[in-house]
Amino acid sequence: MDEWYWLRERDDPEVVAHLDAENDHTRAALAHTEAAQQLLFEEMVGRILETDTSVPAAKRGWSYYSRTVEGLQYAISCRRPAGGEGDEQVILDQNQLAEGHEYFEVANHAVSPDGTVLAYATDDDGGERYTLHVRDLKSGEDLADEVPDTYYGVAWSADNRTVFYTKVDDSMRPHQLWRHAVGTPASEDVLVFQEDDARFFLGVHLTLSERYILLGLESKVTSEVRYVAADDPTGEFLVVQPREQGVEYDVDHHIDAGGERFFIVTNADGAENFKLVEAPVGTPGKEHWTEVVPHRPDVKLDGVEVFAEHLVLFEKAKGLRRLSVRRITDGATHVIDQHEPVYTVYPEANLEFATRTFRFGYSSLVTPRSVYGYDLENRSRELLKRQPVLGGYEPDDYETVRLWAAAPDGVQVPISVVHRRGLVLDGSSPALLYGYGSYEHSVDPAFSPLRLSLLERGFVYAIAHVRGGGEMGRRWYEDGKLLRKKNTFGDFVACAEHLVAEGYTAPERLAIRGGSAGGLLMGAAANMAPELFKAVVAAVPFVDVLTTILDERLPLTVMEWEEWGNPKTDAEVYRYIKSYSPYDNVRRLPYPAMLVLAGLNDPRVSYWEPTKWVQRLREWTTSANPVLLRTEMGGGHMGPSGRYDAWREEALITAFVLDALGRPGPS
Prior knowledge:
By secondary structure, the protein is an alpha+beta fold. α2 packs across α12 and α6 crosses α7. The radius of gyration is 25 Å and the shape is globular. The two termini are 49 Å apart. 45% of the residues are buried.
């Protein structure tokens, strides 16, 4: 029985009226925090250098960068001749394009190999169906080319006149690859490939060497990659290795005087944490694979970036990301050392294949995001830019630690923690615990200037690296999905209990936060241990799991069966999902104060999931705590698109947390 099922009829005026009334109710319920929201917003903006420029990245005689301007919502993409001399050329000013739109996003921003043409795609309602445009960079004018209803992923061919793009089916599954010739109408575009297996989605990209266009076909547990020479855009896409259930692989290309090869990251042959192999381009099948980096039970290989003389391996070890460099000629390997015990690293813009300088980003919970240039041969690094933090921020005023909580089955779960230095562990501090725990996604400990508004008020901020994520290797993910999904929820509750037991906070001072699948985590945790939390923030939460996963007409459902199980065909899966789905397990409990965020045009978590959940929570809760719903009527899964709008939402969330925990607002 689902008494709120009617809320999924988004074209019904009563549904729209209901959402509008909910927004009015939330606005009224938080009216007493409006002054605090405004002060928090000003405080957050006051720490950000509003007019700023990214580190330029070189490619074929140009330096590409983006910049922001105080008062403008969106970034401006630019370039100037390499070497710093010559006038700036504005490639794309999103602020001009966004005029008149409540929501605006640019995707598939790609310059042709010769630097003369730009492909970009726009979405003005958050539904993630993009219109592809082509811009002549010599004149700065858009051409007549316009392709509606495209998706993420674009690749230029070597002729600089052919661009590949993807389209989705009615369930928002990217299933088609199309080819467009610049200067021709979209009606003449050619369908290159269609994936009919509803478990698989496709994507396309050009290798860094710019020699091959790769078509990736992936389900949650199986991969297949096809390739075509970039200088033969009308040629046939050939298969690297035919798909084999449960075998995943990813491909990149290398070329030198000795010939061409593919480097392949794969879990084939029982390599649970993945290994690296290579194969000749002409015969890339599995029977021709040669092992380069073997499987390691204590190190997860996430991927590889291929340069002319070196490989950069993206790895996870002991719950942290790390970068390893391997010289191609002799296999000499070293790990790029980092200076903090808890941190994250990630690749930055690396646009050139023939380079010895690798650009990477570094951050921790106390160190602002930093960009380094690293010499792959002599192992030296140069700090190119560190995110400015205005207002006198001093990293030494804070400290970050790694804690370990014991899950119900005894597994040790890592927690990343940051707080003001000198914290007294007597349980008197307020805390915010964040979690996600699905799709092998790692929530890495990175800096946010917006978070300082909590830290400066004595908050402890913590990230629970629960199973279902990818922080501790592939087994960590496998143990938090399908019929082991409840480990995710037990891990999170254990992390909260550990923070309380160690004196970092107390239940009456603990708030929790998560979004999307992390919103599922919030709902499950609230059902399991409502007395442990004082406040919950759940953004676009996936809380009506059973109903959604049963309905294959909905976006993404069929693809999700390999993540959650298929309750349509498996009674055990049906019972298991029903036992934890937050909406189906709301009971007479003293639920914490809740702020729930939704997007009317969200194609990933339909707006009715959080909307229904809020109604049922209000009906069943035995506490007087508020349960509030705020829906972006012109937005989607990612929340507000403009940076100032996003900061205002963060100020609202922070004000809600402060109010729910009874903390004083800003003076």
